[in-house]
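User: Hi! I'm working on a homework problem where we have to compare a predicted structure to a textbook description. Could you give me the structure for the chain below?
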Amino acid sequence: MLHEANFPWPTAGHQPARWRFGDGVGTCAGADRRSDLDAQWRSRVRSGQCGQRDPGTGPEGATPSGDIVVTGTLVRNPNLTLSSPVNAVSSEEFQLRQTNVAEQLIRELPGVVPSIGSAVNNGNGGASFVNLRGLGTNRNLVLIDGARIAPAGLAGVVDLNNIPTALLERMEILTGGASTTYGADAVAGVVNFIMKRDFSGVEATASNQITQRGDGAYFRTDLTIGANFDEGRGNAVFSIGYQQADPVYQGARDFSTFNIDSFTGAQGGSGTTVPGRFTGLGLGTNQQIDVATGRLVPTYSLFNFNPQNIFQTPFDRFNMFGAAHYEVAPGIEVYSRGLFSKNNVQTVIASSGTFGNSVTIPYSNPYLPAGARSQICASQGLTTAQCAAAAAATDPTSPDYRTFNTVASRRFVEAGPRLSTYTTTIFDYQAGVRGSITSTINFDVVGSYGESENVQRQSGNGTLTRLRQAALATNTTTCVNDSNGCVPINLFGPAGSITSDQLGFLLGVTNSTATRTTLGTIKGIISGDFGVSSPLATNAISFALGGEYRKYTASVISDELTQRPNEVLGNGAASPDVRGRYSVKEAFVEMIAPLVEDRPFFKSLTLEAGGRVSDYSTAGTNWTWKVGGSWEPVSALKIRGNYQKAARAPNIAELFSPFVVGLDNSANDPCAGAGVTAGSALGAVCAAQIVSAGATPAQANALLGSIPVPSAGQVNVSSGGNPNLGVETANTYTIGAVIQPDFFPGFNLSVDYFNIRVKDAITSPTPGDVLGACFSPLQAATSTACSAIGRNVDDGSLNGSAAGILLPLSNLGNIFTDGIDLSANYRQDLGFGALVLSFNGTWTNRNKFQATPTSLNRECVSYYSINCGSIQPEFTFNQRTTLTVGGADLSLLWRYLSPVTYEPAALADDIAGGSTGPLQDFRRIGAAHYFDLTSRFEVNEHFDVTISAMNLFDRQPKVVGSTIGSTAYNSGNVYPSTYDALGRRFAVAARVRF
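Assistant: Happy to help. Predicted C-alpha cells:
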C-alpha cells in the first residue's frame, strides 16, 4: 500500500494542481488534469518534475461541483480530511507488479491475510476473496466507486476476479470499522476500487508471464476506449479484456513431488490408497491387500496425491466495463456504470475413490482373493466349510450365500484426477443522478442491480450408490442388482485393475451445482454545508444524510446426486438446495466540523461524527455510530483518531444453510491407535461415541485399538446455518499521526494504532476446540463436550459415514486484533532524474478468536496449525525503491514476512492426544524476503514496455509437511498462498496509447 489519499484539492482554479510524487506530495503546474494521455504531464513525470497523479484529489474523484469522494465518509468537501487512515494503491503499482487480478496484489499487502485465491486448489470454489486483518472474508466490504456489487455466494462476499483492473485509477483501503458510512459488513474495513472518470483516448495492453521452469503461463490483454463529448459536458468509456492462466502442478516442484507427513517426516498421503485398504473386519487398523499373496496385511502404503494437485489454478476470464456521465443541465449530471464478467476457474484434485465408505461384499465376489477371504471368514467366525460354501454360492437365494460389511478405502487411480470447473457470470449495473441543490448543497440518487451465477461441474468422482451396487456382485459381468447397466468392480486389485467398463459405470455420471445471488440497492444522499462554521474556523461544517435500501437473494440449486449426503464420492459435504433472502432499510447522517483553523498550535482541529440505523428483515434494528477527529498543531504534523461501533448482520449462508456433513482438518484422533483399550477411561469415551452411532457396546469395544487415524488429515464435520442468529457488533478505534516535516522536504510518515474487538461474533468452533473440550482433559462419556463427536459405526473413525464433529454456528464468539500500521515515503530530485522510496508495514500484536465461552481463546498471530487457517505473520512490510531517469523507470520491490511457528495450543492438544506433535524442523518457518525487479521505459510518446522478474532470487517455500495446517492453505507440503511456490517468474507487458 502506498500513502494515504487524504490531501485536499485546491479550490481556486488558478492554483497549481496537486499530484503525488510517487508516494509524497508536490506540485505540478500547467498539466492538463482532465486527460490521462496528456503528453505534457507524462513528460514532467518522466523528467522528475511531477510524480504520479494523486487520483484521490483530481477530477476523477470529483462530483460535478468539484467535491471529493473519499473512502470512509459520505461527506464531500475538498477542504476536509478524515480521521481514519486510508491507504491507496495506484494503478501505477498494479502495472509495476504486473497484476492480472486484484487478489494477486491484495494478498501481498501488509494488513491483509491471504484468502481464497489462485494458489488455493482444494477449497477453491471458483472465486477470490480479501481478508483484512485476518478477521474473515465476510467482515470487510469490497466496493467499486463506493458502491456495492453483486456478491459471489451465500456468504455475501465479492469475488475479486470480477474487478475491472484495466480502468482502475486507484484502490483505497480503509481499515477499521466503517459500518456507519457503508452499512453492515465493514467491520475490518473497506476495499474501494475507484475507476478512471474522464478517460479520453485509446489504450491497448498485452502482457505475458511464465515461470523460470517453463510452466504457469499467464496471458492478459485489454482494450480501453474513451471520449469526452459535447464540449466536455460528458464522457463515456468502455473497456474489454481477456485473461488466461495455465496450471502449475505440485509434481513439477522438487519440494512438493512427494507428500510428507508433518508428524513423522515420512512420505505421507491418504489412507484411501491402492491396492485397497479394508477396516471394520476385526483384523486391526491397517489392512491392505497384498497383491502378491492375496492376503490382508497389517501395514499399508499411503497414496501420494501431491502430483495431481496444483499450485496455480487454471483460469480464464472475459470481462467488460463501461461508464458514462453527462451534465444534462448546469450542476445536474446523470451517470451510469455497468460491468460484465465471465470467468472459469478449474481445480484439479487427486483421483477419486471410496474414502472409508461402508460396503457390503459377498464372500463369492469374483475379485475377492482367496487369502483375504479366508482371513475374513475366520474373523467373522465362519468355519472352513462355511467359508468354502459361501465362496461358491453365486445365487443370492442360496442358503450358503453370505456377505460381510467392511469400510473400503480404495483410490480409483485408473480414472485420473477429479476436475471441478467453476463458471462465474456476473453483471452489475448502476445508474443515478447527482448535482447541486444550492451552491453548497448537493444531492445524489442512485440505484443498482446485479446478478451473479457460479456453476460448478464435476467429473471423475463416482457415486456411493453405484459403488455399493458394483461391489455386491458374484460374477464379473453382472451385479446382484443389475439396474443401470451395472458392471461389477474390482476393489481388491492393484493399480490398473479397474477396467474402463467398470469406470464407465462407476463414474458415468457428472454432477453440478449452481449458486445464484442478486443485489438490488437504492440510495439517496444530500451533502454539503449550510455556510455555518465554528467561530475559530473558516471552513463550514459539512454534513451528509440520506437513506439506503438493499435486498439480497441467494440460492443453491444442485442436481439430485449432489444433494444426497455422502453420495458423490470424495466430494465432502452434500449440497442441498438453499434459498434465502433478506432486506435492510437504513438512514444515516455524518458530519465533519472544523473547530479551529490557522491559530497558534492549531493549524486545524476537526471533529467527525456519524450514525446509522439499520432495520434488517431477519435480525431486527441495529445502530452504529462513529466519532473522531484530527489535530494539526503545525502544518508538518497531524494527529488523528476515531472510535466506531460497527456491525455485521448474519448472511444468507449463516441463516439458511441446512446442516450437512463435510470435511475439516485434524491429523490426530485421540481414539485412534492400538493404545486405546476397553475398560480404560479413554476407551469408555471412545466406545460411547461409537455406540451413539448405532453400534452395540460389544461391537464398540471390539473396535478399540484398531480405529484408524483420520484419512489424509481430514475428519468429518457437521455444520450448517442458524436462523436464530443476531447481529454481531464491533468496537474499533484507531489513533495515529501524519508527519511531513518542513525541514525534510519530500518526506512523509504516518503511523496508526488499530484496535478491533468483535462481540457476539457469528462463529463456530474449530475441530481442535471440540476434540480438546472432550479429551484435553478427558471428560465423562456422557458430557456435552464428548457428545458433540460422532463416529463411524463400522470402524469407529471420524471418516466415512460418520456424523463427525459438530460445529454449530452461534453468536457466542469473540474476536480481537490490534497492531500498528506504518507508512513512510521519500522523494529526492537527483537532477538527472528522481528517486522515490516508499515503505508500508503492519505489526499485528494480537489476533485472538474464541468461538464459545468454553472454547480456547486462541491466538493465531505468527502461528500456524489446523486451527489457524491462513498464516498471519507478526510483521510484514513492502518497500519499493524507484529510480526514474528520462523516460525509464527501474523499480525494486522488497516484501518481508516475519518468522512464524507451530501453534503452542495445537502442540498441547497433540500431546494430550498421544502424539509428540510435528517434527521439530516443521515447527518453524523463518523470515521470508522476496524481491521483484521491474523496468519500464517509454519507446515513444504512445508506446511503453514493462519487464519484470518476480521472486528475483527464486526463494523456495519452507517445507512443513502436508498435515500441519488446513487443507486450503497447507498444500504441497508448504503454504503456497503466503509463500511463493511458483519460483522465479518473468513478465513482459506492452502498452499503446493514443
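For your comparison, note the following. The domain at 19-249+312-349+600-650+725-766+808-993 is CATH 2.40.170.20 (Maltoporin; Chain A). The chain has 15 helices and 43 strands. Good luck with the assignment!
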